[in-house]
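Whiteboard transcription, Tuesday session. T.W. wrote the C-alpha coordinates on the left side:
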Protein backbone atom coordinates (compact mmCIF):
# COMPACT_ATOMS: atom_id res chain seq x y z
CA UNK A 1 0.00 0.00 0.00
CA UNK A 2 2.63 2.53 0.99
CA UNK A 3 4.23 2.59 -2.47
CA UNK A 4 0.96 3.62 -4.07
CA UNK A 5 0.86 7.24 -5.16
CA UNK A 6 -0.68 10.24 -3.42
CA UNK A 7 -3.43 11.68 -5.67
CA UNK A 8 -3.61 15.46 -5.94
CA UNK A 9 -6.14 17.40 -7.99
CA UNK A 10 -7.07 20.95 -8.88
CA UNK A 11 -8.87 22.72 -11.70
CA UNK A 12 -5.51 23.54 -13.30
CA UNK A 13 -2.02 24.55 -12.29
CA UNK A 14 -2.84 25.72 -8.76
CA UNK A 15 -2.46 22.36 -7.05
CA UNK A 16 1.19 22.34 -8.09
CA UNK A 17 1.76 24.62 -5.09
CA UNK A 18 0.93 21.56 -2.95
CA UNK A 19 2.98 19.21 -5.16
CA UNK A 20 6.03 21.47 -4.90
CA UNK A 21 5.88 21.23 -1.11
CA UNK A 22 5.00 17.51 -1.00
CA UNK A 23 8.13 16.74 -3.00
CA UNK A 24 10.18 18.67 -0.44
CA UNK A 25 8.70 17.11 2.69
CA UNK A 26 8.14 13.58 1.36
CA UNK A 27 10.68 13.05 -1.45
CA UNK A 28 10.18 9.29 -1.52
CA UNK A 29 6.45 9.52 -2.28
CA UNK A 30 5.00 8.88 -5.75
CA UNK A 31 2.51 11.54 -6.83
CA UNK A 32 -0.25 11.49 -9.42
CA UNK A 33 -1.55 14.95 -10.25
CA UNK A 34 -4.71 15.78 -12.16
CA UNK A 35 -5.34 19.32 -13.44
CA UNK A 36 -8.78 19.77 -14.98
CA UNK A 37 -7.45 22.36 -17.42
CA UNK A 38 -10.31 21.87 -19.89
CA UNK A 39 -12.82 23.11 -17.30
CA UNK A 40 -10.77 25.68 -15.36
CA UNK A 41 -11.84 27.98 -13.71
CA UNK A 42 -14.06 26.28 -11.14
CA UNK A 43 -14.27 29.38 -8.97
CA UNK A 44 -17.14 31.11 -10.74
CA UNK A 45 -19.33 28.01 -11.10
CA UNK A 46 -22.31 26.85 -9.07
CA UNK A 47 -21.88 24.61 -6.05
CA UNK A 48 -23.63 21.73 -7.92
CA UNK A 49 -21.17 21.94 -10.80
CA UNK A 50 -18.16 22.16 -8.47
CA UNK A 51 -19.37 19.05 -6.59
CA UNK A 52 -19.88 17.13 -9.84
CA UNK A 53 -16.40 18.05 -11.13
CA UNK A 54 -14.78 17.23 -7.78
CA UNK A 55 -16.37 13.76 -7.73
CA UNK A 56 -15.15 13.09 -11.27
CA UNK A 57 -11.62 14.32 -10.48
CA UNK A 58 -11.41 12.17 -7.34
CA UNK A 59 -12.87 9.22 -9.29
CA UNK A 60 -10.12 9.54 -11.87
CA UNK A 61 -7.42 9.49 -9.18
CA UNK A 62 -9.02 6.48 -7.51
CA UNK A 63 -8.95 4.67 -10.86
CA UNK A 64 -5.14 5.10 -10.68
CA UNK A 65 -5.06 3.31 -7.32
CA UNK A 66 -3.97 6.24 -5.13
CA UNK A 67 -3.67 5.75 -1.37
CA UNK A 68 -4.77 9.27 -0.43
CA UNK A 69 -6.49 12.20 -2.12
CA UNK A 70 -5.64 15.86 -1.71
CA UNK A 71 -8.11 18.41 -3.09
CA UNK A 72 -5.45 21.07 -3.66
CA UNK A 73 -8.19 23.50 -4.56
CA UNK A 74 -9.84 26.07 -2.31
CA UNK A 75 -12.97 26.10 -4.44
CA UNK A 76 -13.52 22.34 -4.15
CA UNK A 77 -12.53 22.24 -0.48
CA UNK A 78 -15.02 24.95 0.45
CA UNK A 79 -17.94 23.69 -1.63
CA UNK A 80 -17.75 19.91 -2.05
CA UNK A 81 -18.11 19.32 1.68
CA UNK A 82 -19.47 15.77 1.39
CA UNK A 83 -16.69 14.53 -0.89
CA UNK A 84 -14.50 13.02 1.88
CA UNK A 85 -17.41 10.87 3.11
CA UNK A 86 -17.68 9.16 -0.29
CA UNK A 87 -14.00 8.20 -0.57
CA UNK A 88 -12.39 4.89 0.42
CA UNK A 89 -9.01 6.56 1.15
CA UNK A 90 -7.85 9.35 3.50
CA UNK A 91 -8.57 12.85 2.19
CA UNK A 92 -7.69 16.43 2.92
CA UNK A 93 -8.78 19.73 1.44
CA UNK A 94 -7.05 23.05 2.02
CA UNK A 95 -9.33 24.95 4.42
CA UNK A 96 -8.53 23.47 7.83
CA UNK A 97 -4.70 23.43 7.65
CA UNK A 98 -4.56 26.87 6.04
CA UNK A 99 -6.96 28.57 8.47
CA UNK A 100 -5.08 27.00 11.41
CA UNK A 101 -1.75 28.34 10.13
CA UNK A 102 -3.20 31.84 9.69
CA UNK A 103 -4.81 31.90 13.14
CA UNK A 104 -1.42 30.94 14.61
CA UNK A 105 0.51 33.47 12.56
CA UNK A 106 -1.44 36.67 13.21
CA UNK A 107 -0.10 39.06 15.82
CA UNK A 108 -2.61 41.90 15.47
CA UNK A 109 -5.69 39.67 14.95
CA UNK A 110 -6.42 41.03 11.45
CA UNK A 111 -6.39 38.38 8.73
CA UNK A 112 -7.15 38.84 5.05
CA UNK A 113 -8.54 35.99 2.94
CA UNK A 114 -8.37 35.97 -0.84
CA UNK A 115 -9.81 33.23 -3.03
CA UNK A 116 -12.11 32.54 -5.92
CA UNK A 117 -15.67 33.89 -5.80
CA UNK A 118 -17.08 30.45 -4.90
CA UNK A 119 -14.60 30.11 -2.03
CA UNK A 120 -15.21 33.59 -0.62
CA UNK A 121 -19.00 33.22 -0.96
CA UNK A 122 -18.88 29.95 0.99
CA UNK A 123 -17.30 31.74 3.98
CA UNK A 124 -15.38 28.52 4.72
CA UNK A 125 -12.02 30.09 5.66
CA UNK A 126 -13.66 32.80 7.73
CA UNK A 127 -15.79 30.29 9.65
CA UNK A 128 -12.80 28.06 10.29
CA UNK A 129 -10.70 30.98 11.61
CA UNK A 130 -13.52 32.24 13.84
CA UNK A 131 -14.11 28.74 15.20
CA UNK A 132 -10.51 28.86 16.42
CA UNK A 133 -10.58 32.43 17.72
CA UNK A 134 -13.70 34.56 17.42
CA UNK A 135 -11.89 37.79 18.26
CA UNK A 136 -9.97 37.72 14.98
CA UNK A 137 -11.17 40.19 12.35
CA UNK A 138 -11.37 38.57 8.92
CA UNK A 139 -11.38 40.61 5.69
CA UNK A 140 -12.34 38.76 2.52
CA UNK A 141 -11.86 39.54 -1.15
CA UNK A 142 -12.47 37.39 -4.19
CA UNK A 143 -9.78 37.67 -6.89
CA UNK A 144 -11.00 35.63 -9.88
CA UNK A 145 -8.64 37.24 -12.37
CA UNK A 146 -5.61 35.86 -10.52
CA UNK A 147 -6.59 32.37 -11.74
CA UNK A 148 -6.69 33.52 -15.37
CA UNK A 149 -3.34 35.29 -15.01
CA UNK A 150 -1.67 32.16 -13.67
CA UNK A 151 -3.27 29.80 -16.19
CA UNK A 152 -2.13 32.14 -18.98
CA UNK A 153 1.43 32.27 -17.69
CA UNK A 154 1.33 35.88 -16.43
CA UNK A 155 3.15 35.15 -13.20
CA UNK A 156 6.14 37.51 -12.96
CA UNK A 157 6.06 40.28 -10.35
CA UNK A 158 7.79 42.41 -12.97
CA UNK A 159 4.80 42.14 -15.30
CA UNK A 160 2.80 45.37 -15.28
CA UNK A 161 -0.51 43.55 -15.82
CA UNK A 162 0.11 41.32 -12.79
CA UNK A 163 1.04 44.33 -10.63
CA UNK A 164 -2.06 46.29 -11.68
CA UNK A 165 -4.47 43.42 -10.98
CA UNK A 166 -2.85 42.77 -7.59
CA UNK A 167 -3.20 46.43 -6.64
CA UNK A 168 -6.84 46.61 -7.77
CA UNK A 169 -7.87 43.59 -5.71
CA UNK A 170 -5.78 44.21 -2.60
CA UNK A 171 -5.92 47.98 -2.06
CA UNK A 172 -8.87 47.84 0.39
CA UNK A 173 -7.30 45.02 2.36
CA UNK A 174 -4.05 46.95 2.63
CA UNK A 175 -5.94 49.83 4.25
CA UNK A 176 -7.36 47.44 6.87
CA UNK A 177 -3.83 46.83 8.18
CA UNK A 178 -3.98 43.06 8.01
CA UNK A 179 -0.77 41.38 9.16
CA UNK A 180 -1.58 37.93 7.69
CA UNK A 181 -3.03 37.02 4.31
CA UNK A 182 -4.43 33.62 3.36
CA UNK A 183 -3.79 32.89 -0.30
CA UNK A 184 -6.91 30.74 -0.22
CA UNK A 185 -6.82 29.62 -3.81
CA UNK A 186 -3.93 27.32 -4.64
CA UNK A 187 -3.23 29.25 -7.84
CA UNK A 188 -2.33 32.40 -5.90
CA UNK A 189 1.02 31.36 -4.37
CA UNK A 190 2.31 31.21 -7.94
CA UNK A 191 2.10 35.05 -7.93
CA UNK A 192 3.10 35.38 -4.25
CA UNK A 193 6.06 37.63 -5.05
CA UNK A 194 3.79 40.23 -6.71
CA UNK A 195 1.33 40.03 -3.79
CA UNK A 196 4.09 40.41 -1.23
CA UNK A 197 5.75 43.29 -3.12
CA UNK A 198 2.44 45.16 -2.95
CA UNK A 199 1.47 44.40 0.66
CA UNK A 200 4.98 44.74 2.13
CA UNK A 201 7.20 42.51 4.24
CA UNK A 202 5.19 42.97 7.43
CA UNK A 203 2.29 40.92 6.02
CA UNK A 204 2.76 37.14 6.40
CA UNK A 205 1.49 35.23 3.38
CA UNK A 206 -0.08 31.84 4.09
CA UNK A 207 0.26 29.44 1.16
CA UNK A 208 -2.72 27.06 1.07
CA UNK A 209 -0.81 24.55 -1.08
CA UNK A 210 2.10 24.45 1.33
CA UNK A 211 0.02 24.15 4.50
CA UNK A 212 -2.06 21.40 2.94
CA UNK A 213 1.01 19.43 1.87
CA UNK A 214 2.40 19.63 5.41
CA UNK A 215 -0.92 18.46 6.83
CA UNK A 216 -1.12 15.62 4.27
CA UNK A 217 2.29 14.39 5.42
CA UNK A 218 0.98 14.28 8.98
CA UNK A 219 -2.16 12.43 7.85
CA UNK A 220 -0.17 9.82 5.93
CA UNK A 221 2.01 9.17 8.91
CA UNK A 222 -1.03 8.91 11.19
CA UNK A 223 -2.59 6.33 8.87
CA UNK A 224 0.64 4.36 8.55
CA UNK A 225 0.74 5.05 4.83
CA UNK A 226 4.17 6.66 4.43
CA UNK A 227 6.25 5.25 1.62
CA UNK A 228 9.33 3.77 3.27
CA UNK A 229 11.06 2.81 0.00
CA UNK A 230 14.61 4.06 -0.07
CA UNK A 231 14.39 5.89 -3.39
CA UNK A 232 13.11 9.18 -4.78
CA UNK A 233 9.45 9.00 -5.82
CA UNK A 234 8.05 9.85 -9.25
CA UNK A 235 5.53 12.50 -10.32
CA UNK A 236 3.08 11.89 -13.10
CA UNK A 237 0.72 14.60 -14.35
CA UNK A 238 -2.61 14.34 -16.17
CA UNK A 239 -4.53 17.23 -17.71
CA UNK A 240 -7.87 17.42 -19.48
CA UNK A 241 -6.72 20.06 -22.01
CA UNK A 242 -3.53 20.41 -24.00
CA UNK A 243 -0.30 19.15 -22.53
CA UNK A 244 1.91 21.92 -23.97
CA UNK A 245 0.60 24.98 -22.11
CA UNK A 246 0.54 23.10 -18.81
CA UNK A 247 4.12 21.94 -19.33
CA UNK A 248 5.32 25.47 -20.00
CA UNK A 249 3.92 27.16 -16.88
CA UNK A 250 4.48 24.12 -14.66
CA UNK A 251 8.15 24.22 -15.56
CA UNK A 252 8.52 27.92 -14.67
CA UNK A 253 6.78 27.39 -11.38
CA UNK A 254 8.34 24.07 -10.31
CA UNK A 255 11.79 25.11 -11.53
CA UNK A 256 12.16 21.84 -13.36
CA UNK A 257 10.98 20.32 -16.58
CA UNK A 258 7.87 18.13 -16.54
CA UNK A 259 8.32 17.21 -20.19
CA UNK A 260 7.39 13.62 -20.95
CA UNK A 261 5.58 13.30 -17.63
CA UNK A 262 2.30 14.95 -18.66
CA UNK A 263 -0.53 13.08 -20.40
CA UNK A 264 -3.88 14.21 -21.70
CA UNK A 265 -7.03 12.45 -20.53
CA UNK A 266 -10.67 12.99 -21.38
CA UNK A 267 -12.32 13.48 -17.99
CA UNK A 268 -15.83 13.08 -19.49
CA UNK A 269 -14.91 9.59 -20.65
CA UNK A 270 -13.41 8.70 -17.29
CA UNK A 271 -16.55 9.95 -15.61
CA UNK A 272 -18.92 7.77 -17.66
N1 LIG B 1 -6.96 26.56 -7.56
C1 LIG B 1 -8.33 26.59 -7.29
C2 LIG B 1 -8.67 27.06 -5.93
O1 LIG B 1 -7.87 26.84 -5.05
C3 LIG B 1 -9.31 26.80 -8.37
C4 LIG B 1 -9.31 28.07 -9.11
C5 LIG B 1 -10.42 28.05 -10.13
O2 LIG B 1 -10.52 27.07 -10.84
O3 LIG B 1 -11.19 29.02 -10.19
O4 LIG B 1 -9.69 27.62 -5.66
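and on the right, the sequence the group agreed on:
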Amino acid sequence: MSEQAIGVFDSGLGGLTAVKELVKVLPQENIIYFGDTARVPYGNRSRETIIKYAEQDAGFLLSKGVKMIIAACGTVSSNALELPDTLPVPFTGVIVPTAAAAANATRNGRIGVIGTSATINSGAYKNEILARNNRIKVYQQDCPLFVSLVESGFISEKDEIVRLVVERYLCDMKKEKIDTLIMGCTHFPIIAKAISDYLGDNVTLIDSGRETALYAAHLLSKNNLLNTANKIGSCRYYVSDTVESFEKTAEIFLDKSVEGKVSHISIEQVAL
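Someone added at the bottom: Residues 47-63 form the longest helix (17 residues).
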